[in-house]
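A.,

Following up on our hallway conversation. Structure tokens first:
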């Protein structure tokens, strides 16, 4: 299974000034597998220990955090001789022992010659009182569910992957229908590695019942996490987390997808749910897209803290939360228009995030014009419109191009690529093309 994060991990391994690394993310996104694969392919040996329900490690980290002592204990627990530069040290499920996170500071200061990766829940790593997070002493990467290109690779469609990676718009037009069929499968399965693996192993007789059970189990696991750290949170916090999380499908099903506190609970206000929303973001299971007051560079300077959209991290999980059957998505093109385009926007949002963008959106003062997303590279802002159907009327996008003088504009839809004046039309499966072309500072 190919994960694009591996490139970053290899670059980290080869960096002469590397720090201990925290690889975090939501549960079941493949963190443990990825670091084991790094150890297997890039190091001579690997000292792996899981800290979950590990009394020996709990005792080890309750004492002195000096690296020489910890290395000796990890070597004994993993039955591995640890050699600087040759051995990858992996502390899996690091959130289970908060002092293990604190210990990374001492590795950075006193034992930087050792390659150490700690993996764990995004939420669990940051919520423990009484422990010190090693600010400035660690690198931190976040692993999201598999994006569409990773999905294509996992199911063996390497040639199709290359077409998108190479931004070959002509070949996309030739194989458009085939790519759209695979995109529908991705909308059902999503990017959680276990669900993808089941699909790849059982296709063409895909076992959607098993896949949906995996997705249900993941969602139940999230609910378990809502109460897992309740002692460190205000009273009733777990309930507010669940209320916000459960409201996301209906929030996205509205024409105006701006998050409404009153849609979570009648009479709800920001102060009731702000902390819960932040925890969902910290846990990596939700994605926030802030409104900007002006779609100008740099976008962060124009953030409107009172207006935002909230998405899940995975379209397959959103489908399960919505109760949409696989058949309803695979038959025809209704999926892209269902729930007022919620699935199409969800797809584009999570793809943008997977390629390192921090998307925003914009509306004018009276909300008569809207840009669904805004992406930014190191020079300019790119307005993005998402169309769930084949009607590509783009009044807001064209008005924004004229008003703000955008150099480039992109419209994603179920149709093949084409040029429409100043707008580059791209298929919904081709968000990777935007990442590729903006890195090259070109769109056509």
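Then the amino acids I'd put at each of the 444 positions:
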């Amino acid at each position: 299974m190919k994960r694009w994060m591996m490139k970053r991990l290899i670059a980290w391994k080869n960096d002469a000034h590397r720090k201990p690394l925290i690889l975090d993310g939501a549960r079941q996104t493949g963190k443990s597998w990825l670091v084991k694969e790094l150890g297997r392919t890039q190091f001579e040996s690997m000292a792996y220990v899981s800290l979950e329900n590990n009394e020996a490690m709990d005792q080890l980290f309750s004492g002195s955090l000096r690296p020489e002592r910890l290395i000796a204990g990890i070597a004994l627990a993993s039955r591995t001789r640890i050699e600087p530069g040759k051995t990858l040290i992996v502390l899996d499920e690091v959130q289970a022992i908060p002092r293990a996170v604190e210990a990374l500071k001492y590795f950075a200061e006193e034992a930087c010659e050792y390659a150490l990766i700690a993996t764990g829940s995004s939420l669990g790593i940051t919520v423990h009182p009484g422990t010190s997070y090693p600010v400035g002493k660690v690198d931190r990467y976040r692993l999201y569910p598999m994006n569409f290109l990773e999905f294509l690779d996992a199911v063996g469609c390497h040639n199709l992957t290359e077409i998108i990676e190479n931004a070959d718009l002509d070949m996309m037009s030739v194989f458009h229908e085939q790519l759209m069929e695979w995109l529908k499968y991705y909308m059902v399965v999503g990017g959680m590695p276990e669900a993808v693996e089941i699909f790849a192993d059982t296709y063409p007789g895909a076992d959607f019942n098993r896949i949906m059970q995996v997705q249900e189990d993941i969602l139940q696991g999230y609910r378990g996490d809502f109460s897992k750290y309740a002692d460190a949170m205000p009273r009733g916090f777990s309930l507010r987390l669940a209320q916000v999380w459960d409201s996301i499908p209906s929030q996205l099903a509205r024409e105006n997808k701006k998050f409404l506190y009153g849609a979570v609970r009648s009479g709800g206000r920001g102060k009731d749910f702000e902390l819960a929303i932040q925890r969902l973001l910290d846990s990596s299971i939700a994605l926030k897209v802030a409104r900007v007051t002006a779609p100008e560079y740099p976008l962060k300077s124009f953030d409107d803290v009172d207006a935002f959209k909230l998405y899940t991290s995975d379209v397959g999980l959103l489908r399960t939360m919505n109760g949409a059957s696989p058949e309803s998505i695979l038959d025809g093109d209704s999926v892209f228009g269902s729930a007022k385009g919620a699935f199409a926007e969800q797809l584009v949002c999570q793809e943008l995030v997977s390629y390192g963008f921090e998307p925003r959106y914009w509306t004018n003062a009276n909300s008569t014009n809207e840009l669904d997303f805004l992406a930014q590279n190191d020079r300019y802002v790119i307005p993005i419109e998402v169309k769930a159907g084949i009607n590509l009327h783009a009044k807001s996008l064209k008005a924004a191009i004229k008003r703000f003088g955008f150099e480039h504009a992109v419209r994603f839809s179920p149709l093949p690529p084409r040029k429409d004046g100043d707008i580059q039309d791209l298929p919904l499966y081709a968000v990777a093309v935007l990442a590729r072309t903006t890195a090259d500072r070109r769109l056509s």
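Residues 440-444 have pLDDT under 50 and may be disordered. Curious whether your intuition agrees with the design.

B.
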